[in-house]
Each structure stands twice: as C-alpha cells, then as structure tokens.
Specification:
The protein is α+β, with helices and mostly antiparallel strands. It has helices at 22-37, 52-62, 82-103, 106-112, 123-126, 152-169, 183-188, 220-223, and strands spanning 4-7, 10-13, 74-79, 129-136, 138-140, 146-148, 173-174, 195-204. It has a single domain, classed as NADH Oxidase (3-Layer(aba) Sandwich), CATH 3.40.109.10. Helix 2 packs across helix 6. The longest helix has 22 residues, at 82-103. Bound molecules: 3-iodo-tyrosine (IYR). Residues 96, 112, 115, 117, 177-180 line the site of 3-iodo-tyrosine (IYR).
Length: 227
C-alpha cells in the first residue's frame, strides 16, 4: 500500500518509479515503439466475436488518460446489437455519400485516394463492437446547474489515443472513423445534450484477407526538433 498524507486538506499518496538500467530503458522504449509502429487503421473486419471483458479492460485503460482538472470528460458507448449497428451504418452512409459527392473538396478527395476510402461503410455492421467516443462538454451540478469541463477536446483526444493503443495491445484492430456530421449517432444512441460525438471506432479482428495501404511514417527529423 502506498503511503498516504493530507496536504492542504486534500489526500495524497506517495508515488515513485524504479530506476531502470540504461539498457533496460533503451530496450523498453525500442520495444514499445516497434509495437506501436505495427498498429494500422483497418477497414476490413472479421465478424469473429470478442469477449466483453476485453472491451471493458480497453475502456478502463482509455479512462486512465490525463484530463483537464481530472474531470474525465468522456463517455464510451459500446454497440454490439446488430439492429443498432445497422441503423448506424445506414445513417453514416447517408452522410458519407453526401460528403463524398458534394461536401468534400477535390484536394481532400485526392488526398484520400491512396487510402481507398469511399462512402460505403460495411465494417459498421461486420465488426463485433463499435465504440463511440463522446466528449462531455459540461456536467449537471446540483439543481441541474451546468458546469463546464476543461480542455475537453484535448482530454478526449488523449483518451482516444490510449484507447487505440489498448486495442492494438490486445491484438485487435480499429479504425478511427469520423462520419461527418455525426449528430445522427447522438439520436440513435439517445445521448444527453451535454455529450457530443467525437469518434466512432469499430473494433475486432482484421478480415482473413485484409489489405492496408503501404504507408510509411515521417522520419524523426521531420517530426521532432531538439534544442
Ligand atoms: N469521413 C470520411 C472521409 C475521410 C476523411 C479523412 I481526413 C480520412 O483520413 C479518412 C476518411 C470517411 O470515413 O470515409
């Protein structure tokens, strides 16, 4: 059990990390990089079922992300029900068709060509789970008074990153899908007005035959500047 102490009326616990050898630190950082570098966004899913408990662990991991004033301003909705998945697919494809046919610029469509995306989203019915991440703009305080959360976009972005890493670590794949506009999902899932949809993430195994674009990643000197 960690040591506990009260500082200015608030409880604290002692926290430390073991000092690693230089080699162990290097090995761990390298291994984790290699592991994360093998993550890919996948659009072709298998319908193979996944235990609910795995999804629960993944969500608990996502919720370990830091957040503004530790408000954890997120809700994860998990859809397994085939009827609800179908409703989501129909509504998402309707919006996406409109986007691909008239809302997206020609530059945008050109940028997406190497990814092979289009308005069809069959994975929304095939993947065993859809996780919909909602950002909670405010909470209802006593007497229903609205209390704004802080840095909601940043916090929910971080939690979503943790979520994708946890999915990958469990040996599963995901897609960060952003049908736009996404309001339809609040209606289908009957979410309260303080929640706004952020990302729709199908989770499962890749299809037996699954292809992903042959993309590289930027080199270190393109993404980092050391001073
Ligand atoms: N939301 C659309 C379009 C799309 C946009 C971006 I930026 C992508 O990186 C991928 C797709 C869709 O999901 O197809």
């Amino acid at each position: 059990m960690p040591e506990k102490k009260i500082i200015e009326d608030h409880p604290y616990i002692s926290y430390s990390k073991p000092i690693l050898s230089d080699q162990e630190m290097l090995d761990r950082s390298q291994l984790f990089y290699k592991k994360m570098d093998s993550r890919r966004s996948v659009r072709e899913f298998a319908d193979r079922p996944i235990a609910r408990e795995v999804i629960e662990n993944i969500l608990k991991t996502a919720s370990t992300a830091p957040s503004g004033a530790h408000k954890q301003p997120w809700t994860f909705c998990v859809v397994e029900n085939p009827e609800i998945k179908k409703q989501i697919r129909i509504a998402a494809e309707e919006e996406e068709l409109e986007s691909y046919e008239s809302r997206m610029s020609s530059d945008w469509l050109d940028d997406l060509k190497p990814l092979g995306t289009d308005w069809r989203k069959p994975f929304l019915e095939i993947a065993p789970y859809l996780i919909i991440v909602f950002r909670r703009i405010y909470e209802f305080g006593p007497e229903g008074k609205k209390k704004n959360n802080y840095y909601v976009q940043e916090s929910v972005g971080l939690a979503s990153g943790f979520l994708l890493a946890a999915i990958h670590n469990a040996g599963l794949v995901s897609l960060t899908h952003t049908p736009s506009p996404m309001n339809f999902i609040s209606k289908i899932l009957n979410r309260p007005e303080n929640e706004k949809p952020f990302l729709l993430i199908p989770v499962g195994y890749p299809a037996e035959e699954c292809w992903v674009p042959d993309l590289g990643r930027k080199e270190l000197d393109e993404i980092a500047v050391f001073y």
